[in-house]
Amino acid sequence: MSSLWLLSVLLSVKGGLGDVVGALPKALARRGHRVMVVIPKYGDYAEARDLGVRKRYKVAGQDSEVSYFHSYIDGVDFVFLEAPPFRHRHNDIYGGERPDVLKRMILFCKAAVEVPWYAPCGGTIYGDGNLVFIANDWHTALLPVYLKAYYRDNGLMQYTRSVLVIHNIAHQGRGPVDDFNIMDLPDHYMGHFKLHDPLGGEHNNVFAAGLKMADRVVTVSHGYMWELKTVEGGWGLHDIINQNDWKLDGIVNGIDTAEWNPAVDVHLHSDDYTNYTRDTLDIGKRQCKAALQRELGLQVRDDVPLIGFIGRLDHQKGVDIIAAAMPWITQQDVQLVMLGTGRPDLEDMLRRFEGEHRDKVRGWVGFSVRMAHRITAGADVLLMPSLFEPCGLNQLYAMAYGTVPVVHAVGGLRDTVAPFDPFGGTGLGWTFDRADAGRMIDALGHCLNTYWNYKESWRGLQVRGMSQDLSWDHAAELYENVLVKAKYQW
């Protein structure tokens, strides 16, 4: 395959999907492919140059003019679509009433499928020669549908293919059946969207249609792929997933090793922190731990295990499990740092924990990229008790920094954190098989016992974690195989 066209929508620069959209295209470009990313122009991006192209699209009876902007970054063409519904939404990309969000996604997908014809990147358009679109989650799941209904059903773009990536199937673009009327599709396509919900009758489901129309489907881990086929993990789409099992693949996300690398991490350049490698792990991590303790006002002790949590404060991330385990945790000779923002009651809980246990608990309410990096470098243990986790990135960051993960064995956490085997000297961390405080306490207890009493085994865990190839270059090779299958095996 000599070139690809990569379609992604950048939903957030903070979450895992934003990391994927930013890193995967560049990794594919490094493998010799021509790659384009298409993004709604939510804000004023200084690097985006107006291409002078204007197109009009009708959504729910209203015309919207779409303008094309372009930037070339790290071997990738970034095309920004500017239109009134997208303006000034960079801090509120999910905002608005449900019908407004759907209309924005309809406009985006209608315009994006035509970008290779109209955006002169580097002076030339891509055309429809050797193209594979990659769409992400329900927000761009309409693109495979429009590709088929508007083009392939009419003898156009016959060699263009689409891949739909499932990052989180819990969000599906559900709405009333009447939503179909604003999608501007032939009537016989309605059946692809209509889904029966035992609790609420029939509804319109964008993800369902995208899964059926896409040539290939990727989930972000093998574990999550398996969970999607179950009644509990499929969120009502398990039957469709199983019917399309032949076109599913599971690929664990990579990490951006330019940003998440203790050897070059810019957030470790100052304030007594230091960069380190696997060879300088002992000295470097000890210094980062002491710097983190000082910055947070904790007692500077090298012998006390420092446990970190970084994530959204919501039910999915298992914060309630940590809360239930807090009486046990605070009775141990440990320090705990929790960084996150989310549900107001959980934010208040972090503040309360810190107030009640000032000698060993810190709750950083809000989000700080710098502090996330510093916790990852300075902590000994990363706790991830997520109820479900399609892939997870924080456990990958942790292992790259020599920080040992303790995780609930679901989705990508199960795939990436091999349980420690003290007899064989293998494994990367500790896992627990049920989302409750007792199981987490058991796993964390074994972890702390190893930290205190088996230093050689502990260092082996750290070194094995840091020795892995967690880069996007490896993940891109696996994606390339899927794109080849989408192109030639159908």
Secondary structure tally: strands: 17
- Biggest sheet: strands, sense, closure? 6 strands, parallel
Residues in helix, %: 25-40%
What Rg do the Cα atoms give? 24 Å
Unreliable sequence segments = 8-17
**Amino- and carboxy-terminal Cα gap:** 16 Å
CATH evolutionary superfamily of the largest domain: Glycogen Phosphorylase B
Tally of contiguous helical segments? 17
Q: Averaging pLDDT over every residue, what do you get?
A: 91
Which of globular, elongated, flat, extended, rod-shaped describes the shape? globular
Spatially, the strands of the biggest sheet line up as: 14-13-12-15-16-17
Write down the CATH class of the largest domain.
Alpha Beta
Domains, number: 2
The CATH topology assignment of the largest domain is Rossmann fold
Report the CATH architecture of the largest domain: 3-Layer(aba) Sandwich
Class by alpha and beta content: alpha/beta
Explain the overall architecture:
- By secondary structure, the chain is α/β, with parallel strands linked by helices.
- Helices cover 37% and strands 19% of the residues.
- It is built from 17 helices and 17 strands.
- It has helices at 16-30, 98-112, 115-118, 142-151, 190-193, 206-213, 222-228, 238-243, 281-296, 319-331, 344-356, 369-378, 394-400, 411-416, 437-453, 455-466, 472-488; strands at residues 35-40, 49-59, 62-73, 76-82, 132-136, 161-166, 174-175, 194-197, 201-205, 216-219, 248-250, 306-310, 335-340, 361-365, 381-384, 404-408, 430-432.
- The strands form 4 sheets. The protein has a 6-stranded parallel beta sheet with strand order 14-13-12-15-16-17, sandwiched between helices.
- Helix 10 crosses helix 15.
- The longest helix is centred in the C-terminal third of the chain and has 17 residues, at 437-453.
